[in-house]
Amino acid sequence: MAALGKDTLSTLRGVGTATLTMQLLKRGFRNVFIQDATPLDPARCRFAAEAYTLRFIPMREDLSRPEVLGDPEYPPRKAIEDIPPGQVMVVDCRGDRRAGALGDILVTRLSKRGCAAVVADGPMRDAAAVAAVGLPVFCNGSAAPASITVHFGADIGRPIACGGVAVFPGDVLVGDTDGVVVIPRALADDVARDSAEQELLEEFLIGRVRDGHPTTGTYPPNEDTLAAYDAWRAARDGT
Amino acid sequence: MAALGKDTLSTLRGVGTATLTMQLLKRGFRNVFIQDATPLDPARCRFAAEAYTLRFIPMREDLSRPEVLGDPEYPPRKAIEDIPPGQVMVVDCRGDRRAGALGDILVTRLSKRGCAAVVADGPMRDAAAVAAVGLPVFCNGSAAPASITVHFGADIGRPIACGGVAVFPGDVLVGDTDGVVVIPRALADDVARDSAEQELLEEFLIGRVRDGHPTTGTYPPNEDTLAAYDAWRAARDGT
Amino acid sequence: MAALGKDTLSTLRGVGTATLTMQLLKRGFRNVFIQDATPLDPARCRFAAEAYTLRFIPMREDLSRPEVLGDPEYPPRKAIEDIPPGQVMVVDCRGDRRAGALGDILVTRLSKRGCAAVVADGPMRDAAAVAAVGLPVFCNGSAAPASITVHFGADIGRPIACGGVAVFPGDVLVGDTDGVVVIPRALADDVARDSAEQELLEEFLIGRVRDGHPTTGTYPPNEDTLAAYDAWRAARDGT
Amino acid sequence: MAALGKDTLSTLRGVGTATLTMQLLKRGFRNVFIQDATPLDPARCRFAAEAYTLRFIPMREDLSRPEVLGDPEYPPRKAIEDIPPGQVMVVDCRGDRRAGALGDILVTRLSKRGCAAVVADGPMRDAAAVAAVGLPVFCNGSAAPASITVHFGADIGRPIACGGVAVFPGDVLVGDTDGVVVIPRALADDVARDSAEQELLEEFLIGRVRDGHPTTGTYPPNEDTLAAYDAWRAARDGT
Amino acid sequence: MAALGKDTLSTLRGVGTATLTMQLLKRGFRNVFIQDATPLDPARCRFAAEAYTLRFIPMREDLSRPEVLGDPEYPPRKAIEDIPPGQVMVVDCRGDRRAGALGDILVTRLSKRGCAAVVADGPMRDAAAVAAVGLPVFCNGSAAPASITVHFGADIGRPIACGGVAVFPGDVLVGDTDGVVVIPRALADDVARDSAEQELLEEFLIGRVRDGHPTTGTYPPNEDTLAAYDAWRAARDGT
Amino acid sequence: MAALGKDTLSTLRGVGTATLTMQLLKRGFRNVFIQDATPLDPARCRFAAEAYTLRFIPMREDLSRPEVLGDPEYPPRKAIEDIPPGQVMVVDCRGDRRAGALGDILVTRLSKRGCAAVVADGPMRDAAAVAAVGLPVFCNGSAAPASITVHFGADIGRPIACGGVAVFPGDVLVGDTDGVVVIPRALADDVARDSAEQELLEEFLIGRVRDGHPTTGTYPPNEDTLAAYDAWRAARDGT
User: Fold this and answer.
1) Do C164 and C35 meet the contact criterion of CB atoms below 8 Å apart?
2) What phi, psi does C118 have (nearest 5°)?
3) Lower Cβ count inside 10 Å, N or C end of chain E?
4) Distance (Å) from the alpha carbon of F8 to chain D's nearest alpha carbon
5) Which of F32, F194, F209 to mutate to test the interface with D (most CBs of D within 10 A)?
6) Hey, which residues does F156 pair with through a beta bridge?
């Protein structure tokens, strides 16, 4: 797996998911935004990190028992101690809302271990306590029952589905108040660079709209608007 | 299209949607409340305005491209500059949660142009920024992808479906923390008048319940309660 | 119906639903958490109480009319005046989001009558006003239309479905920020006792994780951790 | 419960559900057609009968056990032996597709006991064998698991929801290849009479359309078409 | 609107929808297959024709009345008499299963008028009688209630959504036992030509597989397989 | 993986899924029946075989291209040539109905290679041609688009979700007209034996019901009925 550019993740932390999805659309990608995963705490949700994947399948009564949780090789428990610092834990819950993917004890441990964020297309258990841990967490609500109530932990480190999107280990995920976008790893450097550029342009454009310009000719910008942008940018950069 | 009574909209701004749906039910209308459109900011969501409609259909890869956004005749862009001041932009997104109907630049422009509110049965892009604009906005969540990711703008000014309800241009929409009710235009004056009356009665009734009266005989009121109401109202009106 | 242990409800008010669902899972119960019922006000949602049930069926135009609301024998109105103090009103709305189960006048009356909480797998009308009453209320959102818009009140005091879970009159419901768990009445005393024990253990365990212990061996606890817990507990209890 | 007119059921057996729903719509009823209940065998599905109701609620592991099936008072088993001959068994399965409402042994017994039909908003077990019994059966597919896998039998003889429609004991249900319509009992005589009349008219009208008449003026009929109908009818009746 | 090539429709009548969707995928189109529209009679479902569109929106009690059906300008009735011979009637029902889009009288008239087929993302009324008319009809089941029970006819000749796909008047629709594909009009000639070619190749390839060739190298074909295909084709064409 | 008993599969081929789900329920398993997978051809659907698994995840535009189908290592293609004779191909399609899991060329090859059956929680392409191949195939309908339209092939030989049920490689799947049951491998021998016994008993019991016995005391059987069964069985076995 090729290394990411050294500024890619830090650049992406400053870029919104609306910008990123537009950059991906321009490259032909329409299915990159995880459905139904919203931040538990909108005030602490910005992150950009490489994906570490955990996959649940439907429970089976003889396997999905409380005893399995004590097995250090049970994938959902192994994942907690194995995820490399700085990565985001991405969990395939098949969108099932009936049981929590993780609870506050496990998320506390992830936080101690330097995990960047948690993203699941399922709920959290004791979501208020999970939110209090302080990690960015994206999920589809809260549910008290433990994961083994409806899931069995199948494996870690495999490609998964999360919120209708393919997530491969090493893909770059970025989250903000809107939710989470998945950037295929090979595109992350390029997308980071172009997104930073787009955000600067949009900062200028919304200012124009606030000043009373119509959207026609402004958004997207025509040549006059782009010339004004170049001037604004030059002034801003002190050039 | 007949003009609305001159106080109709201002009266309706002071009436709750619970009251309005009851007035419409009494006239035989059961399907008037837009499903799954909640206020982005409950503190700024009261509005009453005439409907201006925008309709999306499913995307087609050759049409739903970033380039189309620069065409001033593309209906979703034309709508932003064409909606008459004081009207509410109502968007038919077929309930699709995968892409934002509008983002903060367009909603900023709508606000500048005097638009009364935005109602969509789809999400907003960069919903936190949209909420910060200050317009009443009702939608079904947030989603970073642009509308062209899953939609194509079909037309403006046509009857639409929004949240399972028919909306005709010129219908009167009223929003509060519960959501949005659609009042067929021809009924708006009557409904406004009777709703104001109902709200006054309910103000009295909830006071009675707070004073310990049972709901039986109070809600709905029997003759004794109505007599007490008349007395209370007379006292209140200084008559 | 056998009486509950005298401390059962007060114990349960101090226990989280995550703990309770685990205790029930250990006893073989996987389907005890009401789906899609979240607290209107997370700051006022803790309760534990015996269930009083109300059941809606789909509306019929000749029965579901405003006039029926004035009949003191109409089950949804009779329920308001009949529910014994201290019980929780549990309403079977078939998950329908189109109409409110109850509104602020009825919930005000329930509060006056000493009702412990309201749980519905449907929305509330004028949900902001309902939240202001101060009772714990769990529901699936807000909807302005009155219940008779889509429901007819079938009966009270019968077993019902609520959020995909069976609720029998007299079952013990417990709510917190995650939602509501249904404890079959015959198990309530046992579950209360064991849950209090489990919560104490988890208080200890999360402290260990905050101190840097790995989850392996800690959660669930191995013998060493349990020995440390016994010591901690003895110290805490001053023994 | 007032008796039905003596020819009402036999008349209704000859009338299509499309006609009946139109007659009910003319009387203000829009929600009378059971959703998602299709005939197992379209060649043997015509029936008209009074409703006998059975209600399931979600399973609970300590109640929904194979042993309960041997209890003659368990409502789903009591229903089989209690339903009066000539009535239709209507089962509230909450639309759940995961388990069969009834299987071939129970439907065989219902057939022996003179039951008119079975209607459920859930699947049948061993649906091929159920179809072979020969009773009209309407359901939403086939599923091998027994009802106790996801249900508990709550009661019989109560108002229920079935496929989104209210069904009261004694209502008249009529089935054909399209599905099942529920006629409120008090309307059955009137609806039967007017439906027979409507069917005769439509037999004439479709003939006109087959002869090349445009639908304008024909369907619905204008005065000329009605005059032609009167003539056709008079000729047909030999008057 | 440019004319179609003279053999385009006849070629398309001989091509399967699986082939057509692959040709469209190769051109970048992933969303062209109407969801949940299956043939009423698989033995009579092949068609290729230009689209004529009809759009329903949700019913409104004062508009969706039986009386409206007698108005020759009511779009769903006007459509029946206005659709040009040889075109396919495509109906936007928003996927609603509660009411029939059309019934046997209207479909009989469409057949008389030379309509090529009917495609709706809603059910048919008296579906058995509709099937007996003999036109290719694709829909999502049967439902007895008339369209006005849940719909109002909004307009004809506008772009619509049908089964999650955009349909513009003049697009070419092709149906077979799998369902219906929508070919953007401008692509129809090209797609027709290349699809006929692909079908011939696949006829050869499935013969190879039946003869025991592995799929590797065969499907898709490698150079050897293509050489064998060229030989087979030359032999077949007598060249 | 322990070998199955030598008669287990042949016994299971003669047992219905209704019986098997009851045997599994008696052992505590409630979630073993694949949802929404029905036989393409009810006349050719009986099978019992060990599971070979294939897993799809959501498509990604740069990976899910026609070119990938020519890669012999692409899991969905590798699976076709790798599945051991006698096993059933089980495909995790996440229930997505928009694209076919397999088409007639691949199913023809599977049939040539001795595959026992195909089970998918997605549709088939050119389902009529797939049905004509003659293999038992269970799926949720037909859809013309190729799998790469909405899927990417993630892996083979891993535990999967199929129709809401966990399927491990080597589990025993049994299909009949109702659908498909998943028997955890370790239970297959026991379940086979007890199911054969149960089927014999039910053959006797349905005969009793046909003879007019009430279900009470018969189904489930009381001691008298069991004695009669023993006699019947002895007579039948010539003992």
Assistant:
1) yes
2) -130, 135
3) C
4) 20
5) F209
6) F54
User: Hey, are the CB atoms on F161 and A94 less than 8 Å from each other?
Assistant: yes
Using one digit for the tens of pLDDT, what is the confidence trace for C100-112?
A: 999 999 999 999 9
pLDDT tens readout for residues D159-195: 999 999 999 999 999 999 999 999 999 999 999 999 9
Residues of chain B with CATH 3.50.30.40: 33-183
Q: Is the pTM of this model over 0.95?
A: yes
Q: Are A174 and A33 in contact (CB under 8 A)?
A: no
How many C-alpha atoms does C98 have within 13 Å on its Cβ side? 15
Instruction: Select from F30, F36, F61 the residue whose CB has the most chain A CBs within 10 Å, as the one to mutate to test that interface.
Output: F61
The whole-number average pLDDT for the span A119-137 is 98
What is the C-alpha R_g of chain A? 20
Query: Taking Cα atoms as reference points, which of D113, D87, D185, D106 lies closest to residue D153?
Result: D106
The CATH T-level fold of domain A33-183 is: Glucose Oxidase; domain 1 (3.50.30)
Residue of E nearest to D30 (CA): E149
**For the structural domain made of C8-185, what CATH number should be given?**
3.50.30.40
Task: Give buried/exposed letters for D12-29 (b at 16+ CB in 10 A, else e).
Answer: bbebbbbbbbbbbbeeeb
pLDDT tens sequence across C6-17 = 999 999 999 999
* ipTM above 0.90 for this complex: yes
Angstrom distance (rounded) from CA E109 to CA D222: 17
CA distance C29 to C35: 15
DSSP string, D136-177: -EEES-B--S-GGGTEEEEEESS-EEETTEEE-TT-EEEEET
% of chain B beyond a pLDDT of 90: 97
Two tokens at E81? 């008499």
Question: Which residue has 């209708």 as its token pair?
Answer: A164
Q: How many CB pairs under 8 A join B and E?
A: 62
Place E159 in a pLDDT band, splitting at 50, 70 and 90: very high
Tokens in use for A84? 């490399």
Best CA proximity match to A199, nearest among A76, A22, A72: A22
Does D165 sit within 8 Å of C62, measured CB to CB? no
